[in-house]
Design brief:
The structure holds two protein chains of two kinds. Chain A is an all-alpha fold. Chain A contains 14 helices and no strands. Classes of the chains: A mainly alpha, B alpha/beta.
Chain lengths: ~290, ~400
Amino acid sequence: MMSLSDTATPRTATSPDWDLFRRRGKSILVHCIVLGLVAIMLLPLVYMVMMSFKTSTEIAQDPLGLPDSLYWGNYMAALSSMGYVRSVLNSMGITISVIVVVVFSGAMAAYPLARLQNRISRVIVMVMALGLATPNFVTITPIYVIFRDLGLLDSYLGIVLAFAALKLPLAVFFYTSFIAAIPIELEEAARLDNCNNWQIFWHVIRPLLAPVTATLSLFVMIMVWNDFIYPLLLLTDKDKLTVMIAVYKFVGNTGIDPTKLFPAAVLGSLPLLLMFAVFQRKIMAGATAGAVK
Amino acid sequence: MIRNLSAVTLTAVLMASTAGAQTVLDVVAWKGNEAEPAGLPELIEKFEAANPDIEVDLTYVARKDVDKVIPPRLQGGNPPDVTMVDSSLVDLWGGAGFLNDLGTGSAWYDRMVPAVREVMTTDGEIRVFPLEVIGMGNFVNMDLMAKAGIDKAPVTLDELKAACQALAAQGIAPMIFAGGFPAMLFVGANGIDPNGVSPAEYGSGERTFVEDENFNAALDGVRDLVAAECFDPELQAGLDPWATAPQEFRSGNVAILPQGAWNIGNFSSVEGLTFQFAPMPSRYTDKGLALDLVGPGWAIPRDAEHAEAARKWVDFFAEEENLTVFLKAEGAYSPYTGGVSTMPDLAAPYTQARAEGSLILWPFSTLEFPKALQSEWEDSITGFLLNIDKPNEDTLQRWDDTVEDSM
């Protein structure tokens, strides 16, 4: 028989209701913090988009306020002097080409470097690490002079090769450490099945590189898309210039005109954002593949 | 029939070869883009009309990127035909033999203002065609001043302090004194005596900043402005001098902004903004001190492919009517004597101080101060604003150390 005191047991801090309440409270708090951080990170982007729709007078009178209406005139003016479609296509072509070259050559270079445990491979990896640490301004003149001698100035091939050479150390570094962590037994099994080195690389190692390739591609894409110094140096034909050069025209030496710069900056980063939006699922899937076994 | 066809073909080939002979003049400049057109689109059109066999291909490279983009081309023997340079680039590239001598026999050379000629001539050679001398001083919002009962831009320290107090009493932010460029202008105007010690003495290490009465007084002058409620030093230390500060002035949120005259066009485009450009209040003069910056010019690199066309470009700018277009767009003074003044009326206070001889050439643009000292000034004055009660020695010693390192 149950006593009265049994039924009237007060809820303790460890009762299921309390636990649920605590868990929900914690979850709401975490969500609030995360949303707050996201809002802080998005603030410059929102500000840029907001400013791009304001007239010069609105910006002067109330720089932080919302636009009275969406003024598209700034975009029309920016588009008319950017050569937008052409420059975006140039940027996309160059960026994708660089990613392809860097991913393939980087992975192929990294495979033997990760597997051969001798002094030469260690030295090569160290040289690659040095390549990562070398500032751009040190390599810019040699690259220019070599490309001039090879007749690669003002060509798509030249700019792709230049970027590929600059980003290759990063790729080799990424892939070397990743491949080194792949169990050697997988390769031994393939070898028992009469696979040669190339077949092992292509059919065993390469598929396992998906996560690191996704991360690397992301890094390379952002770096190449945003770089304007090398295109400015190596490309002179106006039809070959990248979208960031088109945006660069709106940056002043002693100040900025928000009505011109902000719409140009939005237009310049829009294709990159769209690419992220389209490929986000694949990139995230690649980046997290293998993270949990 | 065959003869006619041959004649047509020959004509077409000749026309094609003539069109192919068009010279493309490769010009690199940090002006002429959307943000700072400087009248160049108009001038290029005029130049091409006057020289139908030359097509100008202008590439914009911001000043901060010129040091990265142009040296590889100079060293690779494939430079632009004409490049914009300032005194430090003339010194660096000219000294390395990358720039052509434009000839001291040029007509424009004789017309150059003596002080500019002295700065730009090296070893009897002139490697640049100077385009402008541009003023630096205070932009003053006259509507806000009127609200505080003041009808004149302040040109003395006492006037400036009185204006600050009157503005602050009305709840108006008196002055922007951002740690980098704006603060430097005040410190420079109050440290460099136009009739006293030559800036070159500091720049060469002959005289130290730390023991110098003038520069100690200049830093004390900043404290006086703080005491007069001109600004909050810690707040100003975090203000961006190139983006936020001009935007604040454009928005009418602040009454006084130390900046360069290159902003005149930018501020003039704001509807309802009534302002003047005035000389910097200085302890050495009651007229205000005009701070003239020797601006950029054109240079022809040694290996320029189209040197002859490049020379035509320079000669085109040497014609007063063409240079005037550039100067008007820039809000600048001509570096040549006898030129027509293109400055607007709102810059009358600055122009007057200049005319009365109350001016100095900004020592960073004349290379009297080493280039490295400029960034040190920006950094250390920002540090000074954050710790305004610390001894002057902490700031001034850093300048002396930088000068010593540069020697």
